[in-house]
Amino acid sequence: MKALRIHGNKDIRMEDLPEPIPGIGEVKLRITNTSICATDIEEWQYGPLWTQHGGPNPISGQEMPLILGHEISGHVESLGECAAGLSVGDRVVVNNVRTCGTCFWCMRGSQATCNSMCVAGLSADGGLAEYMTWPGNHLIKLPDNISDREAPLIEPATVAVHAVRRSGVKVGDNVAVIGCGTVGLLTVQAFRAAGARVIAVDVREDSIALAKSLGADDTINSADSRAMEQLLDLTDGIGADIAAETAGAEMTPQLAIDYTRKAGTTVLVGIYSATPVFNFNDIVGTEKTVIGSVAASTGDMEATVRLLTEGKISVKELISAVVPLDRVIEDGFERMIRPEKDVFRILISPNG
Question: DSSP class of residue 235?
């Protein structure tokens, strides 16, 4: 089969590999679509950061070279021994996070911080291939109103839902979402679904307009010299109860902290390839809480599927292109590193 593997920094290769064979409890999937995430680009250009290296992952037993792709949908091709609850032909989304279930963190409900955490496409072979295998109990059947093309974006939507859960948001809270890329726009919708009033913040007018169309109550262009004044006007002079940083840029964590009111909460969701710098006195002197949020915990993806099914989160608007697998490098990865950044998610389909 054809598959895209990462071998190291700036080294991704389209290769011919044997089709995987499902083990005990596993399912073989025929991949329908896998979307390219900014994390995939960062691993390629700046990594390995999150890609398993220096030894095999304790759960998967794998390390680089690995098949990339962690936002994945597929159809069940075959079932391994003891795989239950699925049938050949079922449409599924891959719940890509596996944890040990027995460590200090897993036992306390913080599965995203499990030392053994295994993520498809980062610490086990992922979905930029024609086929993959994955445990059947980490596959979620798709309802009829979620298409194969929409399904891969359930994963970044789950990242957003996880961040909203971590934030402790209450109905009626004023929330600023800093960065209106894919995860940011999904975070806007997830906060709205939780009953918050959402202010979307970006420097790109097209992204700001899309945030408004997806439910943001108000918007701010952070490049405007009056941006802080606008935020205060929208929050009765107080600031945001919660500011969620989703851009992953060098200066946006400081912006999120600045936008957070005294004794409010800042949630850092972005993945940073550059080291952010900010003044810790802006946290200490105002008693702000800063929370990190990564990946997902048990139940987050199932909750996200429900939100999409109910129409409370929409992902269609974030699909910028569909590219065949044999053009994944030229029309996928290379397009996403262009300076103009004119895409949200590019879907890679083995069937074109």
Answer: T
Region class of 215: left (phi > 0), else alpha (psi between -120 and 50), else beta: left
Q: Which residue's structure tokens are 């935020």?
A: 231
Burial 273-298 (b: 16+ CB within 10 A, else e): beebebeeeeeeeeebebeebbbbbe
Q: Where is 241: in which H helix or E strand?
A: strand 240-245
- Grouping H, G, I as helix, E, B as strand and the rest as coil, residue 207 is helix
pLDDT tens digits along 14-56 = 999 999 999 999 999 999 999 999 999 999 999 898 999 999 9
CB neighbours of 172 closer than 8 A, spacing ≥ 6?
A: 195, 196, 197
Using alpha carbons, list the distances in angstroms from residue 203 to 29, 200, 213. Answer: 40, 10, 17
Q: What is the DSSP letter of 332?
A: I
How many whole angstroms separate alpha carbon 294 and alpha carbon 129?
Answer: 25
pTM attached to this predicted model: 0.95
Helix axis angle for 252-259 and 227-234, nearest 10°, is 40
- Which whole-number Å values give the CA distances from 90 to 69, 85, 136, 150, in the listed order? 20, 10, 11, 16
Helices 205-213 and 182-193, packing angle to 10 deg? 30
Task: Indicate the DSSP class of residue 294.
Answer: -
pLDDT tens profile 50-68? 999 999 999 999 999 999 9
Which helix or strand (DSSP H or E) is residue 140 part of? strand 139-141
Count Cβ atoms within 10 A of the Cβ of residue 263 and give its class: 0-12 exposed, 13-18 middle, 19 or more buried.
Answer: exposed
Sequence-distant (6+) residues with CB within 8 A of 229 are: none
How far does the chain reach from its first CA to its final CA, in angstroms? 15
One-letter identity of residue 123: S
